[in-house]
Amino acid sequence: MKKLINTPQTVVADALRGMAASHSEISVDAEAGIVTRSGGKVPGKVGIVSGGGSGHEPLHAGFVGRGMLDAAVAGPVFTSPVPDRIGEATAAVDSGAGVLHIVKNYTGDILNFGMAAEDADDDGIKVETVVVDDDVAVARGEGAGRRGTGATLFVEKLAGALAETGAPLAEVAAMARKVNEMSRSFGVALSSCTTPANGAPNFELGDREIEIGVGIHGEPGRRRAELTTAADTVEIMLDAILEDLPEADGAPVLLLVNGLGATPPIELYVVRAEVERILAGRGIRIARSLVGNYVTSLDMAGCTLTLCRADEQMLQLWDAPVDTPSLRWGA
Amino acid sequence: MKKLINTPQTVVADALRGMAASHSEISVDAEAGIVTRSGGKVPGKVGIVSGGGSGHEPLHAGFVGRGMLDAAVAGPVFTSPVPDRIGEATAAVDSGAGVLHIVKNYTGDILNFGMAAEDADDDGIKVETVVVDDDVAVARGEGAGRRGTGATLFVEKLAGALAETGAPLAEVAAMARKVNEMSRSFGVALSSCTTPANGAPNFELGDREIEIGVGIHGEPGRRRAELTTAADTVEIMLDAILEDLPEADGAPVLLLVNGLGATPPIELYVVRAEVERILAGRGIRIARSLVGNYVTSLDMAGCTLTLCRADEQMLQLWDAPVDTPSLRWGA
């Protein structure tokens, strides 16, 4: 294992200390794994909390700030944070308007966020939960259901922007659920990731093999295939996504071309060009897009694509100002 | 070689098409490798042009926009663009106030930008050139001199911000030279990069080996060492930089923690934390910092560190608004 880390035991807290040093707009408790806005809670605003296992940076801590999250809770690598920490973050951001939990669909996260929500309710904090399950590589209803991946960014951005307008909890939660329902993702890997604790790749790929339909926790994909062109790879990914993407009266899409950690910008932009070409050929308009490392899987080479059908309100929420370590734009 | 590309011959144009699709603020001629601001030339403003071989994305095209570059010229992977293309970009951004060429110190770039500047002069366009040579892994005066790496971003940002105020060419060029003089960089690699044309790594590293003092074109470093902690690795890098960094009356520094392409955010933030700790121990204040993939070397794992001593004017120029694909912040 070759990584720029100190020890597997300290990697999460060390990285959080690095984030704290870099970004004065967030306040970081590196040992507890809790990141909040430095300004403290926003009076009258619905609080938005997300979190999960680490190893997906900048998700979630990089999205804490005006227009997006109020708090992020970072567990150990690929392991859900404990309910107490989620509860602390929930209490820290509740200003009386209630709190939305944005939870990726993994068993541990569902369980721990669920317990934290119950405890918060006992303490008089109203919590709504939205579960993100956008990964079409998992069949609907299979096992624990579809995994949450790239759509998490869209849910956090759009629900975050709506909360910033002072919208009530039910409305913010409804938007979060709508964004998830309108989103589909699919990933391919050119290499496995290596967790610091294991020290060896989760799976092995041959020199000319890629893994089709991977998750973001080192799970193997649905099948292996021979390495092919970016054009053919993107076609496989978009076929899987479009088969399942809601039509929504031909609304345009938000697009995320997401690097899994070890794929450089030059390749992500080649992928972006192929997505443009293929979607244009199928009459789908890309209204907004992002290209970069947003929801990583440690040092995995590869990428995920996420499409989200977006109506006019969703586009406006996308365009609303955001000021976080990893997403930043003005009005 | 495992890459998300179509062919080695088309990778640069394909990636530029992806950038064009993603970023409406830039105007891209993918075949010519020329990227300009979509608004066209800015009347009365000094034009700023940079460029060089591709494989370092988002450098340079990702830095075209208000507050930074007026044009970027992308050559083939790791190969300087030809003088004619540089000349086209120079003519495209000259509004009569002259043009600054920001050139990384590599033989091909020096030669080709030099020829383009002469031709521009013949056409009545006044050109000043600043050469960026910040890499302390190369001894001063050795061979072709020090390589240009991460400081290029600082030069482009600060000279870009000054040009935006309407400052004359001589002043913008003087600032660019000052930023370069105040900057020092050093890189380490955990893996080699693989150029699409070669298809095999430029050098091979053992499972526990790292390369100390690498450049951004797959050159081997000054020496090999055994993989160690992030803390020890950062200490080696900062020792090399600080030995050569101007004191500048104890002025604070700008810091760039730059990923070389295949190193994920979690590791870059661990490095950021170690830089904070070590510099604090040596009484050096980090006034501003960036963490991410800004000056990559294709799919190389590793990072570079750049420090730049910054006076009050330089900090103000850093904070000035910038609106480019890869750096974006408001006033």
Automatic annotation (TrEMBL), chains A, B:
Transmembrane segments: none
Catalytic activity annotation: dihydroxyacetone + phosphoenolpyruvate = dihydroxyacetone phosphate + pyruvate
Domain DhaK span(s) in chain numbering: 7-329
GO CC terms, sorted: cytosol
Database matches in Pfam families: Dak1
Keywords assigned: Glycerol metabolism, Kinase, Transferase
Source taxon at top rank: Bacteria
Single GO BP term: glycerol catabolic process
Pathway membership, UniProt: Polyol metabolism; glycerol degradation
EC number, UniProt record: 2.7.1.121
Gene Ontology molecular function, alphabetical: glycerone kinase activity; phosphoenolpyruvate-glycerone phosphotransferase activity
Quaternary assembly: Homodimer. The dihydroxyacetone kinase complex is composed of a homodimer of DhaM, a homodimer of DhaK and the subunit DhaL.
Name assigned to this protein: phosphoenolpyruvate--glycerone phosphotransferase
Organism of origin: Streptomyces indicus
